[in-house]
Amino acid sequence: MISTLQKTIRPMWAVRRLHKSAIQVLKHPVPEDTVTASFGKFISEIKPQHLSPIVLGRSKRMVMDSIGVGLIGSTTEVFELALQHCKYMYAPDEISSVYGRRGTRLSPTLAAFVNGVATHSMDFDDTWHPATHPSGAVLPAVLALSDMLPSNNKPSGLELLLAFNVGIEIQGRLMRFSNEACNIPKRFHPPSVVGTMGSAAACARLLSLDHSQCSHALAIAASLSGAPMANAATQSKPLHIANASRLGLEAALLASRGLEASPLVLDTVPGVAGFNAFYEDYVPQALESPNDGGHIFLLEEQDMGFKRFPAHLGMHWVADAAASVHELLVGVGPGTVSPAQVQDIQLRIPKSKYINRPYPESEHEARHSFQFNACSALLDGEVTVQSFTPAAMSRPELLALLSRVHVEHPDDNPANFNLMYGEVEVTLVGGDILKGRCDTFYGHWRNPLTNESLTKKFRNNAGTVLPLEQVERLIDVVEELDRIGDCRALLSQLQ
Amino acid sequence: MLRKGITESFGAAIHSVSAAQLTDGVINRSKRMILDTLGVGLLGTRSAVFNKALAHSQFMSEERSSVWGKSDITLPPYYAAFVNGIAVHSMDFDDTWHPATHPSGAVLPALLALAETPPGRTSGLDLLLAFNVGIEVQGRLMRFSREAHNIPERFHPPSVVGVMGSAAASAKLLGLSPEQCCHALAIAASSAGAPLANAATQTKPLHIGNAARQGLEAAQLAQIGLEGNPAILDMDRGFGVYYKDYSPTAMLPDSASGGFKWILEEQDVAVKRLPAHLGMHWVVDAALAARGKLEKMVGSVALSQIQHITLRVPPSKYIDCPLPATEHQARHSFQFSACSALLDNKVTVASYGEDQINRPALRELLSKVTVETPEDNRPSFDEMYCEVEIETDQGQIHTARCDTFYGHWRKPLSDKDLVDKFSVNASSVLCTKGVEGVIEVIGDIEALSECSVLGSYLRMASSPHEQLYSMRYL
User: Minimal Cα distance from A85: which residue of B?
Assistant: First the structure.
């Protein structure tokens, strides 16, 4: 840490001689010169005018998509379970809206919790690089918090959007502290690590905490971070996002009451792990003050991936590859694909245990199965929300195809969302071989969904629980979010 | 690496273990732990961190479970477990085990909160059994890793195993099926793991508070059918993520006797005499002994005589703090504890107050301390020692060493001293009837038909007037 400081100060030494006492200060860095303090300062100093047009545009797309997947997610079993738990295990506290449930309100942290469950319940929410699901951890918390703030002091749409972007930015910055974070995770599920921190940062921003409180909010959140990968592909996975949202909000609220934690949580202290407890390699970097001008949000440089169907991001590559093979098959014969035509299916995919499942037994496992998504797309030409229903999952034609799948992990196919590809090679009974390959699926950040496609996804999702006019109002409100004076225009449309 | 059936064995064991399998040794030890935990929790309700957490939790109105030491506040069980857990660990005064963790604070607040929710009807024996399940599971989990045997560096152990213990205990009390017990563990695992950096800060007590509440919630969610990974303990990328080396084994009944081998039977806990990190207890005993030697030589000790102080302690960064600025840092400072002992010839609860920390005489002594970490001083609560060496301005050297402090599992507190510690602590917030009521109830808890009476004693707060004047020193 000290050598990093010296590196940044050296150019100054070259220019002029430093006063002796300042040199002594360098040898014993003032607590404020830490990475942790720089994050606290950034969160407290960032203002709406620091948001560029690109960042505004991209983040509004994220807000809309997140609300949409949250609304359709409110129809799932895991959401219902979480909602019942919150209603019956806690005292009634009618403050913050629950997605898609008119008249149902909960205390803010519980609303953040259930809306977070909804958002991630179908694995339909956005994915970033390095890998995490950033919006689901942040949006439910800032919405719940906005409902909590007094009516004479509601945030404007722009303030809400700023807080949201702070939550995204902090997550992005933290993930860049580690090379491990760049690959598909093996140990901790990233939303549970950086998501909690993002939520805490966003809520601290919305509460206008001072820089010291913002720091403490991050530190308190660190003690609430971290869930193992083993619960991915189970019904509990959505709780990782839900808890990130809820606990990050709590961390900010506790910090606002004066709770203090480690002032070095993001820094590296030998023998005492802070946030680096969650990573094998960790090199933190301070955040520059936004007031110096020239701060560029990561979202400006690295766009978001949006999913076209509710499954793990990796599935989108093989689905697109298999869909192109389906087109070829349908082109030469009758309108449907039959297992009888297929002798063998070879998938070339990156090596990642938790998404390699030959025979998924639940919808959660199916959303995390290269094999399942490839076969569904091969059979139907696409994967949709309906592909994961029990009826669709138990089709004999699908099971027949699944039994013919073999999997290969080529060396040039790394487990990394920025570098991987998916290849599907189908050997037909006659001996012909049809091949499909996808390097960049439609919806990936290199090939982003158009606004039309994204809005269509939103209409399909939101329309499952809201009336059409309300769906259209929501689209308009989010489009205008940065110009709206009172965020209640948005909050009132969520249920 | 997938080993089959370990998680399953845990689920089955939690579900089927019965009160009949509690041995006398285990019953006695666990009752002592319960009493000590209640006492430190009651005392802890006077701390700043507790009051912040309470204000935070009260934002959610009404309902059901007791807040220890408060006659007029109840909270939903999740938040009652949270604040009471924080109270227990607020002053670092709660029990410590080997391998290292603070087992009781993660479990007892969750159980008491649950016992007060409908439909009620929890007997004392039900509570005792569930408590021991929570302790046992923690002990088992820590034995899955060599890393767990040493003073921690990465994750704070209560945040890793504590939440699992709370989930297991709560699952037991709720009478969950073996499968549900497995899922409770899996759900809890996703809430485990807080970094050590927050130790020695005001947030450390939240590690225990969060363990208690999140374990409780995991069991409640499992009860209504939420499922997680049923092989959570078997997998390296399950519970194994919290350790560098991980080698789980199944939890099976004792094949020979058909009984159940409790870890607590073989490995007792340490009960603290001071509200400070366990390591401090060694250095205080050594410092007092060294001071005694100096006094014997010179008659009366004047601090100006002390030229230099050397401490020989095990290597552990988070308890090596030359100049603590807060009470939390002071509780995690070998240097502070040694100097307090040398200055006052005693160390008590009051020694860690903010006013005591900033005394000029103390700061002066602190500036004379150096710390050494000898090769043979291992960072393990089972093996460490502390040596204090005083060098006088006359050039004389007085050294004393402590291998086992009074209260350590090798030298447990007597029952009388344990009850005394409880009385002093509890009297800071409860009236005499409440204090004596708790002692009586815990003393005979196996015979208690319904736990609600315990809750009512814990709520018998003395008047604010009385509390103002109850400042007894240990």
Answer: B221
